[in-house]
Amino acid sequence: MKFLSAILVIAAISTSAFAKKERPERPERPRAGAVIERIKNALEGDLSDRKKAYLEHRLAYLELNVDMRQALRDAIGDLAEDATDEERKAARNSVRDQFSDQLKSVKDQRREISKKRRTNRGDATSADG
Fold it and tell me: Does the pTM of the predicted model rise above 0.85?
């Protein structure tokens, strides 16, 4: 009897160990086009200047990202099926060079915003202490 119960316990443990675990499904991330539309709709509403500035910067970044991805798809799509890795890399670099000025301006804007935030934080802490 003990032998039979031991076999049943081992069988139950082994089947539960190899059973597929139920995991919740991840929600699908919103596409860039949907996010752009949401931001445009939000900008039509009554928002503070600070929120509008943030959303406008985010919108510019997302639109640039969509344009870059489309240009990259077009550049890679223009290549032949048997294109080498060097040709693909050259296509990626040409797209990167094409958008480098716009990327630099977005980065500079973001750095300026961060710098302002840091200086404001420094002013607030010095007033308290």
Answer: no
